[in-house]
Design goal:
The structure holds 2 protein chains of 2 kinds. By secondary structure, chain A is an alpha/beta fold. In chain A, strands 1, 2, 3, 4, 5, 21, 22, 23 and 24 form a 9-stranded mixed beta sheet that branches. In chain A, helix 6 crosses helix 9. By secondary structure, chain B is an alpha/beta fold. In chain B, helix 3 packs across helix 14. The longest helix of chain B is centred in the last third of the chain and has 23 residues. Chain B is globular, with a radius of gyration of 23 Å. Chain B starts with a strand and ends with a helix. The model of chain B has no long low-confidence stretch (mean pLDDT about 95). The chains are: A alpha/beta, B alpha/beta. Chains A and B meet through helix 2, helix 3, strand 7, strand 8 and helix 4 of A and helix 3, helix 4, strand 8, helix 5 and strand 13 of B. The complex binds iron/sulfur cluster.
């Protein structure tokens, strides 16, 4: 059970984009952990009151893409003691100890997110066979509400069904997998390419069929996007595009984003939709992960440049797309992705220690330590690209701020990103410190845009929540929303974009982080440790149809090394399991 | 009653297809190998420890569970620096409690890795590890290299379930689609059943791996390597050619690598060889883990606190330094003053001076049957057999977590599982720490 309470947050400047609030001074009321319009007199008396006068109030932060739980994250922890010696957390009466900077252990990681004002975090990639591991780590993570996206882009069953053109069976399979492994949405990593990595190969273009299964990246992207809308999942297809990390790959990214166009977004979650000013359902049909790694220009590392202007041009004229940035704040990182061949390429370039795990019949992953240096020409351009993707795309509702933690950098650097986005001066200062390629090989130097606090609220809570379809309870502060609130010591009337360090400090250490109506952190210190929820979806599909699909699954299951009976994730691996039913039986997928 | 899909709690293969039939007080087991079968028979063994015991005036006597838990807790609380040793034949859930307890007490928490694949983990920390889940080999691998490992004796179903005999998607003819190389100074039964046996001199793994790496890079190693390893360069070339021309190769390293001269440097070199091979063809490497949940402790400890084994909490945060905070070294240096040992027989498996020291300090243990370790213990609490009598998680040799459901329940009224027992000890230490803190105030 999640304990919750009544609370009044008084007189703060409230930034709540989904409800159209742009710094209005007002009181917020929370009853039993949920935001309400007001409290009864009796409830007022025993409610906890926070005076937020002169402060900035936003919904709790939502990270829609980070690598925080599961086998590959732990491979990073295991292989990097040097990352752990340097960064430790002592235990307190209330909290556990921990260690790790770019790959923190789960307690430390949970506390660090909460101390920074984030209350909801989604794991970017959960391999089905290792889903129990991801859930174990999430179960051990304190305070945060969480969920994980299931990796399906190189799954044998999906590839087989798509090759046969049987999209309904693919949908039935995806639905069964989400229920079986308690996954939240569909993630697709280097479609068709990771299967080839089973033979130490990759695919070169969107229309190259892979070995044996003979499906192309294009077919997988289109197929899974259709499956996604057929099932009516809360999140759209979440895509890690092909050709990641290579010069000139912006075109692959653009072409990939065009593939689902024409589909209509159809979130059929069965939830209580609140009455927000803006529609809190997603508009997009494809959500591109860590755009920075897919927005490169040039043809080699010698003529490497930003490809963002071209990529942004496409995104600016379509409504189908949301991206998260995967920005690079410089400093230590640990690259980790489901994209095995991309990590091998990075190994060839860097000669670093490198771990890889291919997962039978499903997917793969790779992990490699990395250090982004201001002195490096290429890294400097990557820094610029990570900001350009957020500044050149005009509509903030198409973007989400991340570092693709810990790939571009650590999530605790988010305040630096906010400062660069809000302050041209901050960008210019950094550009002077780093290699001149930063401005020479990108358009960032000519960008005057400085985003507002309202836009910060869009890209750090409202839009991540909406994009992944959890905005019925997260990312806003209207009645019905969870009582997750962050109060920053920042007076918007005195905001000075020429003082980036004040911005960094305010966002790095909020006055209060409130979760379900309880104060969980105060000026960086954890003061309560409630357990969070684990979200997953349970899409319904026509039963006959599911039976037919199951027959195939059972037949092919012989290639696994676990038995069919031991494949699913039982609920005991979750704390506060919170299933979201999707697709009423009437609307269910039926054979055309 | 017949139970299907039961997990075997013996070796790292975590076979999940065991059938158990219980009839007339006996137990019949299908699909398990002889090692597994023997363990299943233990459930009704007359040797089983059935009641808690504590040492009283130098002699062991039966005690109530609460009394035993109390005594275990006070041993831990009264110690300046206790050692908690979580053996690998218990669930990850019990290990988690052990780690929490260690953090709470400021203790050192270690597991079997420290004496088996610890050097392999340290090799990973030097080089990374390119691996795959077992099913990749089952479906794709046409070459298996057993390096310093002897699965036919240590993991009897490894070859048949995962690596050599199974008919996978691209390996329809099983053994006929595969080549097997064994690298081992001894002519083991695995070596006898291989297509190529590289019988190197003992303790020359590092030199042999380095020579292969040199050849892979297109250079010729110094001639002295033939004398050192006892393998001719042309033989090495033959082996490397087999590796390079495979479509999917796997190396399974065993303790022959982790325990011979060079230790973690051997593992590191092997990992580097495999990394480099991936420029030519698909190659992965993994460890054959002798006990069911060795991998589990590495995983759990890494995600809870950041290090895979040998965690010291004496400063209030986790520290890691193999050789300093690892069980053997702490005992040898007499750096701990009490121990809680769960499902492990340290007295038999640790060096003699460690075992002697263990006999001097207060020790509590949780164990299924009498061992030399229970003989030196001051508290013995009966162990529950994971995967047979309670549910939980094991991490398989390839780090895939396996959830096990029991086919019967704990034979004891006082505890459901080792996890349960550990929690009771933890709660008790909390109570007594609280009261002693109060006394100080
Ligand atoms: S191979 Fe190992 S896990 Fe499988 S039955 Fe034998 S002892 Fe048990």
């Amino acid at each position: 059970m999640i304990r919750s309470a009544n609370m009044i947050i008084k007189n703060g400047y409230v930034f709540d984009p989904l409800n159209g609030l742009d710094g209005e001074v007002m009181d917020l009321f929370i009853r039993d952990g949920r935001v309400v319009g007001d409290l009864r007199a009796r409830e007022m008396r025993d409610a906890k009151v926070i005076d937020a006068s002169g402060k900035t109030v936003m919904a709790g932060g939502v990270d829609s893409h980070a690598h925080v739980a599961g086998a590959k994250v732990n491979a990073g922890r295991l292989m990097r003691p040097e990352d752990h010696y340097r960064s430790v957390r002592e235990r307190t009466r209330l909290t556990h100890s921990g260690s790790g900077y770019t790959t923190p252990s789960v307690y430390k990681q949970g506390y660090d997110y909460v101390a920074m004002g984030y209350t909801t975090v989604f794991e970017g990639a959960m391999p089905p066979l290792e889903a129990r591991h991801t859930h174990e780590e999430m179960r051990a993570t304190p305070i945060l509400d969480m969920g994980a996206y299931l990796v399906l882009g190189n799954n044998w069953f999906i590839m087989r069904y798509l090759k046969e053109g049987d999209i309904e069976k693919a949908a039935a399979y995806a639905a069964w997998m989400l229920r079986t492994h308690k996954g939240y949405g569909i993630k697709c990593v280097n479609p068709a390419g990771v299967e080839n990595w089973g033979w130490a190969k990759n695919v070169a273009g969107l229309d190259e069929p892979n070995i044996h299964f003979e499906v192309t990246p294009r077919e997988v992207i289109r197929g899974l996007a259709e499956v996604n809308e057929m099932l009516g999942l809360p999140m759209s297809l979440h895509l890690h595009a092909n050709n990641l990390g290579h010069p000139g790959n912006w075109e692959t990214a653009r072409d990939s984003l065009m593939i689902p166009s024409g589909l209509a977004p159809a979130d059929r979650s069965i939830v209580d939709w609140p009455e927000t000013k803006l529609d809190c359902r997603r508009r997009q049909t494809v959500y591109l992960a860590h755009a920075q790694f897919n927005a490169y220009g040039g043809t080699s590392w010698r003529d490497f440049s930003s490809g963002v202007p071209e990529l942004a041009r496409y995104i600016n004229q379509t409504e189908d797309v949301v991206i998260d940035s995967g920005s690079v704040p410089f400093g230590p990182a640990t690259t980790m992705t489901g994209d095995g061949p991309a990590q091998h390429d990075l190994y060839v370039i860097t000669g670093q220690k490198w771990s890889n795990t291919d997962v039978e019949m499903e997917c793969g992953s790779g992990v490699l330590p990395f250090l982004f240096l201001k002195t490096s020409p290429v890294h400097s351009v990557q820094w610029a690209i990570g900001l350009e993707v957020l500044l050149l795309i005009d509509d903030p509702w198409k973007t989400i701020m991340t570092t693709d933690h810990p790939n571009g950098g650590v999530f605790t650097r988010y305040p630096d990103l906010i400062a660069w986005l809000m302050s041209k001066r901050a960008r210019d200062e950094t550009a002077r410190e780093c290699n001149k390629w930063a401005y020479d090989r990108s358009s960032l130097g000519g960008v005057d845009r400085e985003i507002s606090l309202y836009e910060v609220a869009v890209i750090t809570r409202a839009n991540p929540a909406r994009t992944i379809g959890i905005a019925h309870r997260k990312g806003h502060l209207g009645p019905g929303a969870d009582g997750d609130v962050t109060i920053y010591d920042l007076d918007p009337t005195g905001l000075n974009s020429n003082d980036p360090s004040a911005i960094r400090t305010a966002f790095g250490r909020p006055e209060y982080t409130v979760k379900d109506g309880r104060i969980v952190a105060r000026r960086g210190e954890i003061v309560a440790v409630p357990e969070g929820r684990r979200f997953y979806t349970t899409p319904y599909v026509d039963e006959d149809h599911e039976l037919e699909m199951m027959a195939d699954v059972k037949e092919w299951f012989k290639y696994y090394t676990v038995g069919f009976a031991n494949y699913p994730v039982p609920e005991r691996y979750m704390k506060n399991p919170t299933p979201i039913a999707v697709n009423r039986p009437l609307e269910a997928v039926v054979r055309r | 009653m017949t139970f299907k899909n039961i997990i075997c709690p013996v070796c790292g293969a975590s076979c999940d297809d065991i059938q158990v039939e219980i009839a007339g007080g006996g137990i019949r087991v299908k699909n398990a190998c002889r090692m597994g079968n023997a363990k299943f028979q233990e459930i009704s063994s007359p040797h089983r420890i059935r009641e808690p015991m504590i040492r009283d005036g130098g002699r062991m006597r039966a005690a109530s569970f609460d009394e035993a838990v109390d005594r275990a807790a006070s041993i831990l609380v009264e110690a300046k620096r206790p050692l908690i040793f979580m053996g690998c034949e218990t669930s990850s859930e019990a290990m988690e409690v052990g780690l929490h307890l260690g953090e709470h007490l400021g203790a050192v928490v270690d597991s079997n890795s420290t004496v088996c694949h610890g050097p392999t983990a340290m090799g990973i920390q030097e080089a990374g590890r390119v691996g795959a889940t077992a099913g990749q080999a089952k479906s794709r691998a046409d070459l298996a290299v057993y390096w310093g490992s002897n699965p036919l004796e240590s993991m009897p179903r490894h070859m048949s379930r995962y690596a050599v005999f199974p008919r996978g998607h691209w390996t329809r003819r099983g053994r006929f689609d595969r080549t097997v190389i064994t690298v081992d100074p001894r002519r083991t039964i695995t070596a006898e059943n291989s297509d190529l046996h590289i019988q190197l001199k003992p303790n020359t793994d590092y030199e042999l791996i380095s020579a292969l790496l040199t050849l892979l890079h297109g250079k010729r190693p110094h001639d002295s390597v033939e004398e050192i390893t006892g393998i001719s360069i042309s033989r090495m070339e033959e082996m490397l050619e087999m590796m390079k021309s495979s479509n999917f190769g796997v190396i399974y390293v065993g303790l022959g690598i982790a325990s011979s001269y060079g230790k973690h440097r051997n593992a590191e070199a092997a990992f580097n060889l495999v990394k480099e091979l991936n420029a030519t063809t698909k190659f992965v490497i993994g460890a054959l883990r002798g006990h069911c949940n060795v991998a589990g402790f590495n995983q759990i400890a890494s995600y809870l606190y950041g290090y895979p084994f040998g965690l010291d909490f004496s400063r209030g945060y986790p520290r890691y330094n193999p050789g300093e905070f690892t069980a053997v070294d702490l005992l040898r240096e007499k750096d701990v003053d009490a121990a809680l040992i769960v499902s492990a027989d340290l007295v038999s498996h640790f060096p003699a001076d460690c075992a002697e020291y263990l006999a001097e300090i207060p020790v509590a243990c949780i164990e299924i049957a009498p061992t030399p370790t229970t003989m030196i213990s001051d508290v013995i609490i009966p162990g529950v057999i994971d995967a047979m009598e309670c549910d939980g998680t094991f991490y398989r040799l390839d780090d895939v977590p396996i959830y096990f459901r029991p086919f019967t329940t704990s034979p004891f009224s006082f505890t459901e599982s080792n996890e349960d027992t550990m929690r009771r000890i933890f709660d008790r230490t909390r109570d007594s720490l609280k009261s002693s803190n109060l006394a100080e105030e």
